[in-house]
Amino acid sequence: MKNIVVTGGSGKAGRAVCRHLVEQGLNVLNVDTVPSSDPVCPFYRVDLTDRGQVMDALQWTGGRDHPFRSFATPDAVVHFAAIRAPDLAPEDVTFRNNMMSTYNVFDAAMRVGIRRVVWASSETTLGLPFTPDNPPAYAPVDEEHPMRPESAYALSKDLGEEMARQFHRWNPDSSFIGLRLSNVMEVQDYDRFASWQTDAAIRKWNLWGYIDARDCAQAVRRALQVDFVGADHFIIANADTVMEQTSAELMAEIFPDVPLRAAVPGHETLLSIDKARRVLGFAPEFSWRDGQTPGGGA
Ligand SMILES: NC(=O)c1ccc[n+]([C@@H]2O[C@H](COP(=O)([O-])OP(=O)(O)OC[C@H]3O[C@@H](n4cnc5c(N)ncnc54)[C@H](O)[C@@H]3O)[C@@H](O)[C@H]2O)c1
Known about the structure:
Residues 4-226 form the NAD-dependent epimerase/dehydratase domain. The chain has 298 residues and is an alpha/beta fold. It has 7 helices and 9 strands; from the N terminus they run βαββαβαβαβββαβαα.
């Protein structure tokens, strides 16, 4: 793995991914509609809903203006571009943008000979927002939990996972690794965590989960490196919750009837990352508890 296309590399998670992969010595091309505020690698302005533009971006032997046209074929594409959450745009706009972008990226990757796709699915596929009226079937939630998309956004990710399975069936030597990301946090976001501590209900919607953008980048790197052929999906969250209350106390207070399938000592995540640990070797390195301040992060 040397030459990597990152879609959505100007976004919150994509910026961390681009920086991390560049620091690993990889050639990274950021493909997005807007330039990055952290321009660590070349940028190519592409609307991923336009199939021709996606083919051009992924075919590095292509156009005269292409930043990396001297390389043959990228080794992998990391597909992070999307309208990143429900309620940011009308449902059909989110659905169209995310579905067409994902279809175009998966399809173009296979056509140009890229055999590894790592892409951002979402924790929302698991039934978020969880409430006492819409609780998880059990906790910690894992990859066996029923898929219960509750928005066009979550549906676009659920169907993206199905697309990945079918693209892999059509291209048996391909690998599609979907990362069901929890809520992405940068160091400066940790300032807000204190305001959540007095009310366990505020962050109940995703079982108090989060993913540090740098650990998200680590998950991408491991997904690029792992020896794997197929289409599979992994919950990617930090090892702890966003709360000072223990995980068992949180469940007892907000979701007393939800069965706990495994012990959750201390602040252990209620979004299980056992599969990501086991298969990808994912090992979160950061926690909001480390007392980092903006600009002074570890
Ligand atoms: N932020 C979260 O908490 C969260 C949680 C779970 C999953 N995710 C997923 O992770 C990925 C990255 O999220 P993020 O927080 O960095 O989002 P973000 O909004 O910060 O970045 C997304 C980037 O995608 C680009 N983009 C969107 N549509 C595009 C298109 N048609 N063509 C080209 N570029 C396009 C945007 O310009 C933006 O730079 C997304 O797929 C999102 O759905 C995010």
